[in-house]
Amino acid sequence: INQALTKHKIMVKGNTRRELLYVKDTVKAVKRLLDDDEKGLFQISKGESYEMMKVAEMIAKAVGDVKVELAPSDRPLDIQNLIGVDTESFRWTPMEQALSETVEWFR
Q1: Which CA distances in Å does 50 have to 6, 11, 102?
Q2: Which residues have CB under 8 Å from 81's CB, separation 6+?
Q3: Interatomic CA distance for residues 90 and 45, integer angstroms
Q4: For residues 88 and 71, what is the distance between their CA atoms, to the nearest angstrom?
Q5: CA 80 to CA 68: how far, in whole Å?
Q6: Given a cut of 70, is residue 94 above it in pLDDT?
């Protein structure tokens, strides 16, 4: 997001996949665990990964007038989808909305 806002360009090194969580969703998930008095270890996961090129394109759309470039990378590993929480009872923020709100926060 900083690259997009300051340089009007996003350089993506390799088109790897990553699981990304919006901070508001993470806080809601932690609050639910606390409210339900859950005990133990938890990994908060949406269970959905994103290609970094697609994320960069969503950021470019949210910022406007941003060029996205793909550079080669020697880092071939992708994050595989993780088991997430029940999506019927927990409403995750759509990635495009999360990125748009984050761009506005940075502005």
Answers
A1: 24, 16, 17
A2: 19, 47, 48, 49
A3: 11
A4: 38
A5: 24
A6: yes
Q: Which residues contact 97 (CB under 8 A, 6 or more apart)?
A: none
34: enclosing H helix or E strand: helix 23-35
50 has which bridge partners?
18
Q: pLDDT for 46-67, tens place per residue?
A: 888 899 999 999 999 999 999 9
Q: Kindly report the CA angle at 17 between 14 and 19, in degrees rounded to 5?
A: 140
Residue 3: the pLDDT is: 93
CB 80 within 8 A of CB 49: yes
Which residues 6+ apart lie within 8 Å of 89 measured at CB?
A: none
Report the distance separating Cα 49 and Cα 61, nearest Å: 19
CA pair distance 66, 5, nearest whole angstrom: 8
Which residue type sits at 39? K
